[in-house]
Amino acid sequence: MIIFYTLGQLQKKLNKSFYNTKNLYDVFTTFAGSKKFQEARAKKCLDLINNRELYLAEVGPGDGIHTELYLRYILENGDFERIVLDAYDFSKRNLKRFKKRVKNLGIEINLFLTDLSIARPFLERKYYVITFHEMLDDLPASACVLEDSTYELLFDQELNVQSKKQCKRTIPKELCGYYIVFNDLAWYHVFESRKFLRENGYVELSDYGFTYESIDVPKELWNLNAVREIEGHITVDLNFSQFKELSQRLNADAELWHQKEFAEEMLGKKLWFYSEDKLDYYTTEEINRDKKLRKLFSQGIIEHDNYWYAIIYRNDEH
Asked: What does the pLDDT average to over 44-61?
Protein backbone atom coordinates (compact mmCIF):
# COMPACT_ATOMS: atom_id res chain seq x y z
CA MET A 1 0.00 0.00 0.00
CA ILE A 2 1.41 3.38 -1.05
CA ILE A 3 1.15 6.11 1.57
CA PHE A 4 0.88 9.75 0.54
CA TYR A 5 1.99 12.53 2.86
CA THR A 6 1.28 16.21 3.23
CA LEU A 7 4.38 18.38 3.09
CA GLY A 8 4.15 18.99 6.82
CA GLN A 9 4.03 15.28 7.61
CA LEU A 10 7.19 14.67 5.59
CA GLN A 11 9.02 17.59 7.19
CA LYS A 12 8.10 16.42 10.68
CA LYS A 13 9.17 12.89 9.81
CA LEU A 14 12.59 13.74 8.32
CA ASN A 15 13.88 17.10 9.51
CA LYS A 16 14.28 16.30 13.20
CA SER A 17 16.78 13.51 12.42
CA PHE A 18 18.67 15.91 10.12
CA TYR A 19 19.20 18.42 12.90
CA ASN A 20 20.43 15.74 15.27
CA THR A 21 23.18 14.67 12.88
CA LYS A 22 24.14 17.78 10.87
CA ASN A 23 24.35 21.54 11.20
CA LEU A 24 22.28 23.79 8.95
CA TYR A 25 25.20 26.06 8.11
CA ASP A 26 27.40 23.14 7.07
CA VAL A 27 24.90 22.25 4.35
CA PHE A 28 23.32 25.54 3.29
CA THR A 29 25.00 28.79 2.28
CA THR A 30 23.35 31.71 4.09
CA PHE A 31 24.02 35.30 5.11
CA ALA A 32 24.62 34.22 8.72
CA GLY A 33 28.32 35.08 8.47
CA SER A 34 27.77 38.51 6.92
CA LYS A 35 29.38 41.01 9.28
CA LYS A 36 27.47 43.89 7.70
CA PHE A 37 24.07 42.24 8.17
CA GLN A 38 24.82 41.34 11.80
CA GLU A 39 26.04 44.88 12.47
CA ALA A 40 22.78 46.19 10.97
CA ARG A 41 20.80 43.96 13.36
CA ALA A 42 22.92 45.13 16.29
CA LYS A 43 22.43 48.80 15.40
CA LYS A 44 18.67 48.22 15.35
CA CYS A 45 18.88 46.75 18.85
CA LEU A 46 20.95 49.65 20.18
CA ASP A 47 18.55 52.16 18.60
CA LEU A 48 15.52 50.63 20.34
CA ILE A 49 16.71 49.17 23.65
CA ASN A 50 18.05 51.62 26.24
CA ASN A 51 17.93 49.51 29.40
CA ARG A 52 20.90 48.56 31.58
CA GLU A 53 20.15 44.86 31.08
CA LEU A 54 19.58 43.11 27.76
CA TYR A 55 17.64 39.84 27.54
CA LEU A 56 17.94 38.05 24.19
CA ALA A 57 16.41 34.86 22.77
CA GLU A 58 18.01 33.12 19.79
CA VAL A 59 15.79 30.50 18.15
CA GLY A 60 17.71 28.17 15.83
CA PRO A 61 21.17 29.58 16.68
CA GLY A 62 23.08 27.30 14.30
CA ASP A 63 26.84 27.38 14.72
CA GLY A 64 26.76 30.78 16.46
CA ILE A 65 28.63 32.82 13.84
CA HIS A 66 25.80 35.34 13.47
CA THR A 67 25.37 35.66 17.23
CA GLU A 68 29.08 36.20 17.77
CA LEU A 69 29.23 39.00 15.18
CA TYR A 70 26.03 40.57 16.51
CA LEU A 71 27.12 40.49 20.15
CA ARG A 72 30.64 41.77 19.48
CA TYR A 73 29.14 44.90 17.92
CA ILE A 74 26.75 45.34 20.86
CA LEU A 75 29.54 44.83 23.41
CA GLU A 76 31.78 47.32 21.63
CA ASN A 77 29.13 49.98 21.03
CA GLY A 78 26.50 49.45 23.74
CA ASP A 79 26.51 50.17 27.45
CA PHE A 80 24.70 47.22 29.01
CA GLU A 81 25.66 46.12 32.52
CA ARG A 82 24.29 42.63 31.96
CA ILE A 83 23.44 40.59 28.86
CA VAL A 84 21.49 37.33 29.14
CA LEU A 85 21.18 35.10 26.08
CA ASP A 86 18.82 32.12 25.93
CA ALA A 87 19.31 29.80 22.94
CA TYR A 88 16.56 27.42 21.73
CA ASP A 89 17.06 24.62 19.22
CA PHE A 90 15.78 21.20 18.09
CA SER A 91 19.24 19.69 18.56
CA LYS A 92 21.37 19.22 21.66
CA ARG A 93 24.36 18.88 19.34
CA ASN A 94 23.73 22.28 17.79
CA LEU A 95 23.26 23.94 21.18
CA LYS A 96 26.60 22.62 22.42
CA ARG A 97 28.31 23.79 19.26
CA PHE A 98 26.70 27.21 19.61
CA LYS A 99 27.78 27.64 23.23
CA LYS A 100 31.37 26.71 22.38
CA ARG A 101 31.47 29.60 19.91
CA VAL A 102 30.02 32.32 22.16
CA LYS A 103 31.01 31.24 25.66
CA ASN A 104 33.99 33.62 25.87
CA LEU A 105 32.03 36.80 25.17
CA GLY A 106 31.41 37.49 28.86
CA ILE A 107 27.63 37.17 28.83
CA GLU A 108 25.19 34.80 30.56
CA ILE A 109 24.17 31.90 28.29
CA ASN A 110 21.35 29.39 28.80
CA LEU A 111 20.51 26.50 26.47
CA PHE A 112 17.02 25.05 25.92
CA LEU A 113 16.17 21.97 23.88
CA THR A 114 12.73 22.49 22.33
CA ASP A 115 10.43 20.98 19.74
CA LEU A 116 9.09 23.70 17.47
CA SER A 117 7.13 21.21 15.37
CA ILE A 118 4.38 21.58 17.97
CA ALA A 119 2.11 24.63 18.12
CA ARG A 120 2.68 25.65 21.72
CA PRO A 121 4.61 28.46 23.47
CA PHE A 122 8.20 27.46 24.25
CA LEU A 123 9.98 30.57 25.54
CA GLU A 124 11.08 30.54 29.18
CA ARG A 125 10.92 34.24 30.06
CA LYS A 126 10.40 37.73 28.58
CA TYR A 127 12.97 39.32 26.27
CA TYR A 128 13.84 42.57 24.56
CA VAL A 129 14.81 40.82 21.32
CA ILE A 130 13.58 37.42 20.08
CA THR A 131 15.37 36.27 16.92
CA PHE A 132 14.43 33.44 14.57
CA HIS A 133 17.44 32.40 12.50
CA GLU A 134 16.74 30.75 9.14
CA MET A 135 14.94 27.76 10.61
CA LEU A 136 11.27 28.68 10.18
CA ASP A 137 11.34 27.31 6.63
CA ASP A 138 12.17 23.86 8.06
CA LEU A 139 9.01 23.66 10.16
CA PRO A 140 6.00 21.64 8.93
CA ALA A 141 4.14 23.60 6.25
CA SER A 142 1.57 22.92 3.55
CA ALA A 143 1.93 23.15 -0.23
CA CYS A 144 -1.11 24.12 -2.28
CA VAL A 145 -2.08 24.86 -5.86
CA LEU A 146 -4.89 26.82 -7.48
CA GLU A 147 -6.56 25.05 -10.42
CA ASP A 148 -10.34 24.83 -10.86
CA SER A 149 -10.37 24.99 -7.05
CA THR A 150 -7.62 25.17 -4.41
CA TYR A 151 -5.92 21.92 -3.44
CA GLU A 152 -3.31 20.78 -0.92
CA LEU A 153 -0.60 18.64 -2.53
CA LEU A 154 0.19 15.13 -1.34
CA PHE A 155 3.65 13.61 -1.83
CA ASP A 156 5.40 10.27 -1.77
CA GLN A 157 8.62 9.89 0.25
CA GLU A 158 10.67 10.98 -2.78
CA LEU A 159 8.78 14.31 -2.83
CA ASN A 160 6.90 13.53 -6.01
CA VAL A 161 3.40 15.00 -6.12
CA GLN A 162 1.05 12.01 -6.22
CA SER A 163 -2.34 13.36 -5.28
CA LYS A 164 -4.17 16.37 -3.89
CA LYS A 165 -7.12 17.21 -1.68
CA GLN A 166 -9.38 20.23 -1.72
CA CYS A 167 -8.56 22.90 0.85
CA LYS A 168 -9.53 26.41 1.91
CA ARG A 169 -6.63 28.61 0.86
CA THR A 170 -6.51 31.89 -1.04
CA ILE A 171 -4.02 32.08 -3.91
CA PRO A 172 -4.03 34.98 -6.40
CA LYS A 173 -5.52 33.94 -9.73
CA GLU A 174 -2.41 35.13 -11.58
CA LEU A 175 -0.52 32.35 -9.77
CA CYS A 176 -2.85 29.61 -11.01
CA GLY A 177 -0.83 26.40 -11.37
CA TYR A 178 2.00 27.54 -9.09
CA TYR A 179 2.85 25.49 -5.99
CA ILE A 180 2.43 27.90 -3.08
CA VAL A 181 3.68 27.07 0.41
CA PHE A 182 1.84 28.24 3.53
CA ASN A 183 3.91 28.37 6.74
CA ASP A 184 1.17 28.24 9.38
CA LEU A 185 3.31 26.78 12.16
CA ALA A 186 6.24 29.12 11.51
CA TRP A 187 4.03 32.20 11.67
CA TYR A 188 2.27 30.84 14.77
CA HIS A 189 5.61 30.82 16.61
CA VAL A 190 6.59 34.26 15.35
CA PHE A 191 3.36 36.00 16.35
CA GLU A 192 2.90 34.00 19.56
CA SER A 193 6.36 35.16 20.65
CA ARG A 194 5.10 38.74 20.93
CA LYS A 195 3.58 37.71 24.27
CA PHE A 196 7.12 37.21 25.58
CA LEU A 197 8.42 40.69 24.77
CA ARG A 198 9.46 43.25 27.34
CA GLU A 199 8.63 46.93 26.90
CA ASN A 200 10.14 48.32 23.66
CA GLY A 201 11.04 44.78 22.62
CA TYR A 202 10.62 43.17 19.21
CA VAL A 203 10.64 39.87 17.34
CA GLU A 204 12.91 39.66 14.29
CA LEU A 205 13.56 37.03 11.65
CA SER A 206 15.72 36.59 8.57
CA ASP A 207 15.05 33.88 6.03
CA TYR A 208 14.82 32.92 2.38
CA GLY A 209 11.35 33.55 1.01
CA PHE A 210 8.96 35.16 -1.42
CA THR A 211 5.98 37.43 -1.80
CA TYR A 212 3.38 36.85 -4.46
CA GLU A 213 4.61 39.97 -6.26
CA SER A 214 8.22 38.72 -6.29
CA ILE A 215 7.48 35.48 -8.19
CA ASP A 216 8.89 36.12 -11.65
CA VAL A 217 9.78 32.70 -13.08
CA PRO A 218 7.65 30.25 -15.14
CA LYS A 219 5.52 27.95 -13.02
CA GLU A 220 7.36 24.83 -14.27
CA LEU A 221 10.63 26.15 -12.88
CA TRP A 222 8.99 27.48 -9.71
CA ASN A 223 7.22 24.18 -9.00
CA LEU A 224 10.44 22.24 -9.49
CA ASN A 225 12.06 24.18 -6.61
CA ALA A 226 9.13 25.06 -4.36
CA VAL A 227 9.87 22.05 -2.11
CA ARG A 228 13.48 20.89 -1.91
CA GLU A 229 15.19 17.85 -0.40
CA ILE A 230 18.86 18.31 0.44
CA GLU A 231 20.77 15.54 2.20
CA GLY A 232 17.61 14.13 3.75
CA HIS A 233 16.33 17.53 4.83
CA ILE A 234 13.17 19.12 3.40
CA THR A 235 13.06 22.88 3.12
CA VAL A 236 10.83 25.47 1.49
CA ASP A 237 10.70 29.24 1.06
CA LEU A 238 8.80 31.36 3.59
CA ASN A 239 5.58 32.92 2.34
CA PHE A 240 6.00 36.57 3.32
CA SER A 241 2.71 37.49 1.68
CA GLN A 242 1.11 35.26 4.30
CA PHE A 243 3.20 37.07 6.93
CA LYS A 244 1.88 40.44 5.74
CA GLU A 245 -1.72 39.22 5.70
CA LEU A 246 -1.40 37.87 9.25
CA SER A 247 0.21 41.10 10.44
CA GLN A 248 -2.80 43.06 9.21
CA ARG A 249 -5.33 40.57 10.57
CA LEU A 250 -3.68 40.53 14.02
CA ASN A 251 -3.10 44.30 14.01
CA ALA A 252 0.61 43.70 14.51
CA ASP A 253 3.11 46.53 14.14
CA ALA A 254 5.34 44.80 11.60
CA GLU A 255 7.87 45.77 8.93
CA LEU A 256 9.33 43.76 6.06
CA TRP A 257 12.44 44.45 3.99
CA HIS A 258 14.62 42.75 1.47
CA GLN A 259 17.51 41.85 3.78
CA LYS A 260 19.98 43.92 1.74
CA GLU A 261 17.77 46.99 1.93
CA PHE A 262 17.52 46.65 5.71
CA ALA A 263 21.32 46.51 5.96
CA GLU A 264 21.63 49.54 3.67
CA GLU A 265 19.18 51.55 5.77
CA MET A 266 20.85 50.72 9.09
CA LEU A 267 24.44 51.17 7.87
CA GLY A 268 23.77 54.15 5.62
CA LYS A 269 25.65 52.57 2.70
CA LYS A 270 24.76 51.31 -0.75
CA LEU A 271 25.47 47.58 -0.82
CA TRP A 272 25.78 44.89 -3.48
CA PHE A 273 25.59 41.18 -2.89
CA TYR A 274 27.29 38.15 -4.36
CA SER A 275 25.72 34.73 -3.99
CA GLU A 276 27.96 31.93 -5.17
CA ASP A 277 30.37 30.35 -2.68
CA LYS A 278 29.78 32.92 0.09
CA LEU A 279 26.77 35.15 0.65
CA ASP A 280 27.79 38.63 1.70
CA TYR A 281 27.29 42.32 1.04
CA TYR A 282 29.92 44.69 -0.34
CA THR A 283 30.25 48.44 -0.76
CA THR A 284 31.35 49.94 -4.07
CA GLU A 285 34.67 50.86 -2.44
CA GLU A 286 35.29 47.26 -1.36
CA ILE A 287 34.54 45.99 -4.85
CA ASN A 288 36.87 48.51 -6.48
CA ARG A 289 39.71 47.64 -4.08
CA ASP A 290 39.53 43.88 -4.64
CA LYS A 291 40.53 42.43 -8.03
CA LYS A 292 38.56 39.19 -7.50
CA LEU A 293 35.43 41.07 -6.49
CA ARG A 294 35.74 43.43 -9.47
CA LYS A 295 35.86 40.43 -11.79
CA LEU A 296 32.89 38.74 -10.12
CA PHE A 297 30.70 41.84 -10.17
CA SER A 298 31.66 42.66 -13.76
CA GLN A 299 29.65 39.59 -14.74
CA GLY A 300 26.45 41.28 -13.62
CA ILE A 301 24.82 42.97 -10.64
CA ILE A 302 21.66 41.66 -9.02
CA GLU A 303 19.70 44.39 -7.24
CA HIS A 304 17.64 42.16 -4.91
CA ASP A 305 18.21 38.78 -3.34
CA ASN A 306 15.45 36.53 -2.03
CA TYR A 307 16.47 36.90 1.60
CA TRP A 308 14.08 38.90 3.73
CA TYR A 309 14.22 40.55 7.14
CA ALA A 310 11.07 41.11 9.18
CA ILE A 311 10.45 42.74 12.53
CA ILE A 312 7.37 42.84 14.79
CA TYR A 313 7.29 45.40 17.58
CA ARG A 314 5.68 44.93 20.95
CA ASN A 315 4.38 48.49 21.08
CA ASP A 316 2.45 50.52 18.53
CA GLU A 317 5.02 53.31 18.81
CA HIS A 318 8.72 52.63 18.30
From this structure: 95
